[in-house]
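HUMAN: Ready with one sample?

ASSISTANT:
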Amino acid sequence: MTAEAAVPDPEAQSGHPVTGLDDVVHQRVRLGILTITHEARRVEFGYLRLQLQLTAGNLSQHLGVLENAGLVRVEKGYEGRRGRTWVTLTAAGNTALAEEIGRLKQLIARVETTAGTDR
């Protein structure tokens, strides 16, 4: 046993960072919804649809998953005579996004530290 192997690795005890990725958050479209909503604080359905290049039905399904998980709040109302749907992050949504970004940063760091080594 080498000296390096004798030192407990905190990551080894908690598993590889990829095991902490949240399937609800990590899916490409839902991660996009969460990040855009985080940036804007409150975002209109049509804006999300255009930015993520989705059909209305596809976006609705992803919003339903996020809403059922308690990560976003969807509000329907009117702006003038036109119906609008607004999306905001919940506190749980902010936390889930921050945790996901933290895991992704861990993964990036692992790749970057091994990128220069010969394998």
Summary: Confidence is low (pLDDT under 50) at residues 1-8. The two ends are 21 Å apart (CA to CA).
